[in-house]
Automatic annotation (TrEMBL):
Coiled coil: none annotated. The keyword Oxidoreductase applies. This is 2OG-Fe(II) oxygenase. GO terms for molecular function: ferrous iron binding; L-ascorbic acid binding; peptidyl-proline dioxygenase activity. PROSITE patterns: FE2OG_OXY. SUPFAM superfamilies: Clavaminate synthase-like (SSF51197). PANTHER family: EGL NINE HOMOLOG-RELATED, HIF PROLYL HYDROXYLASE, ISOFORM C. Its cofactor is L-ascorbate. Pfam families: 2OG-FeII_Oxy_3 (PF13640).
């Protein structure tokens, strides 16, 4: 498969996604991509692992609340860029339904090595950074329950959910929801992306 000729189109179940977003503030989409594309995306991520750096919070400030490593996605990462294109299509539907004003997406690869985590936080504290919806797409080829590394999230009804990082799963949620990544026992690969109503400032 050529990275440059690959055509990718995902049919999102928009009605189901919008219903879940309205009732609980998050939605889970399983089996997002064809296996061939998912495997190629895994390879693109793995090839660049030596370029990952320790993550920070806003404005490049290092913090003890997270210990993952990231690589911001730029156009030369062609397969990951196709994932962003699909999220941009989804954002158009979210705009029409929620009048969210989304006009940009920022994203990075994320790697949690064994023992790493991200403590409780919100992606858009005090509505200051333009993030409206957050997404995480799980890239690792397999995952077992005892490897942990789950996403723990509080929905708009203040109910807590523990979401397994199953391969080829996309989780979409409101950026102002409280959430955390539990300590993982195995390398955990993903793409984290935010749909924004303002320009990103990469940190």
């Amino acid at each position: 498969m050529s990275q440059h000729t690959l055509k990718l189109h995902v049919h999102f179940d928009i009605e189901h996604i919008l219903n879940e977003m309205q009732t609980q503030g998050f939605s889970i989409i399983d089996g997002l991509y064809p296996l061939e594309y998912m495997q190629a995306l895994q390879q693109e991520c793995s090839t660049h692992l030596d370029q990952f750096r320790k993550a920070s919070i806003q404005d490049g400030v290092m913090t003890e609340i997270r210990s993952d490593h990231i690589l911001w996605i730029e156009p030369h990462l062609t397969l990951a860029s196709k994932h962003i294109e699909q999220l941009a299509c989804l954002s158009q539907d979210l705009n029409r339904y929620f009048f969210a004003g989304i006009r940009d997406i920022e994203a990075h690869f994320s790697c949690y090595h064994a023992g790493e985590f991200y403590a409780l936080h919100r992606d858009n504290p005090q509505q200051k950074n333009g993030r409206v919806f957050s997404t995480v797409y799980y890239l690792h080829p397999e995952w077992h329950d005892d490897w942990q590394g789950q996403l723990r999230l509080q929905d708009i009804q203040d109910q807590w959910h523990v979401i397994e990082p199953q391969p080829n799963r996309l989780v979409l949620f409101q950026s102002d929801l409280l959430h955390e990544v539990l300590e993982t026992k195995q390398d955990r690969l993903s793409i984290t992306a935010w749909m924004r109503n303002s320009d990103p400032v990469l940190g």
